Amino acid sequence: MKLPRDLPGEELASLLRRYGYQITRQTGSHLRLTSTFKGSQHHITIPRHKELGVGTLNAILTDVAAYLELDRDELGACLFNALLGELSLIWPDHGLLMGNPARFTAEMTPQMGNPYAEAD
Length: 120
Known about the structure:
With about 120 residues, the protein is an alpha+beta fold. The chain is about 30% helix and about 25% strand. The protein has a domain of about 80 residues: Metal Transport, Frataxin, Chain A, CATH 3.30.920. Strands 1-2-3 form a 3-stranded antiparallel beta sheet. A hairpin with a 2-residue loop joins strand 1 and strand 2.
C-alpha cells in the first residue's frame, strides 16, 4: 500500500484513537501515545510535524500493526480509508470491516459488541 506523503503527526494520532491510543504526554515536538486495546500497554512516539516522513510513518504503522496483530497494509487501509470518508473498523473477534458507514447499522452493534461502549 502506498503511504500518504502529507500526513501530519497530529492527524495520525487522531486516526489511531480508534485503536485506543491516547496522547499521554508531549515532549518538545513529539507526542507519546499509549493504548491498552489488546489488554497490555503499548507506547508509540509520533513527531508532531506538518508532514511525517514516509520512513517514519512506515515504522510507526509497522509497530502498531505488530501490537494489533495485523498486517501493516491492512492497518493502513483501515486508517487511510477514514481520510477518504469511508469507515473501517477492526472489531475484536470479528475481523476487519471496511466500507460505507451505512453498512454498520445499529443492529450490528449488539450482535458484535461495541469495544468502545462504556461499561455499566
